[in-house]
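Kindly review both lines to help learners:
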Amino acid sequence: MSLTEQLFKHKIVAIIRGVPEEKADDVAEALYQGGIRFMEVTMNTEGAAGMIARWRKRYTSEMFIGAGTVLNEQMAREAVEAGAQFLISPNVDEGVIQCGLEAGVDLYPGAMTTTEIVKAWTLGAHVVKVFPAGSLGTSYMKELQGPLSHIPMMATGGVSLDNMKAYAEAGSRAFGLGGSLVNRALIQEGDFKGLKEHAMQYAAAAQQL
């Protein structure tokens, strides 16, 4: 099964952004125990490359680890060298996509307009991240399916347990989930059991879609 097929199977990418490095391993383990199988470490998180490398070694084929907020080729190379299996960006950057294609990793660039979505797909994206989904809404996602149903899309930004089903019904094949899943309050309190149980709700809901 390809990485893209794995993404469509598990549906959720947990976005690890700004998590203190001393708590990061506990966060990763809580998410894993909660059923999450895709994790994106944003490159503007302190120690991001180290987290990617460490978790690739720890979870091997049990979890898929990638990099997010990959804004340029330098970030892309750093992420790939750390072992990232996929690259996610908030925009369509040709250098990032080319670097990813050369490295043989999956590419999920962010796009908003139809022009950007088609460009990302034409350049070689495996899935296009529709961002910011929360501002655009499910009706926008649904309307995109008319002319662009051949392009697999992942709703990111503003997606939660309450609206995940609505985005799926509108055509989203997967979801990028930040604060709604990677709960900052639970992390600050060191409540990793609570984070695991929180993640279990999301993982279970995704499998019902």
